Amino acid sequence: MTQNGINAVFQTGVIFGRITQLSVDRGFVMSQKEMALSDLLTLLSEEMGDLPVNPSVCERILAEVKELIESLKKYEADEPLKIDDSRIMIGFVSRWTDILLDEFINHSGDIQNDTENAIEIAESEE
Fold this sequence. Notes:
This protein has one domain (3-125): Four Helix Bundle (Hemerythrin (Met), subunit A), CATH 1.20.120. It is elongated. The protein is mainly α. Helices cover 75% and strands 0% of the residues.
């Protein structure tokens, strides 16, 4: 796995955590004052391209993210997330996490080989 891939996995995990926290706390969907749910979904869209997973997995999750971004446009600035939408968001994050974990597990051998190759290259350059 490349350094970009490792960074993307870490960043995606952080974004999933923040989306979950905002959903539980029923934070703002859009805000000029602080990082809001719409900002986190946009960041997630940007990170997905660097994840070391099958492109079809990324495309499926990105399609759902784009639909969510569109559906959240009904909110006014600084309006908190409604309870039903909060549950939906938590459900999406849970499902995306499961999908990505399955993908990482299914390709863990590939990742291990990539890691071993990267170590060998780094050692040969020393």
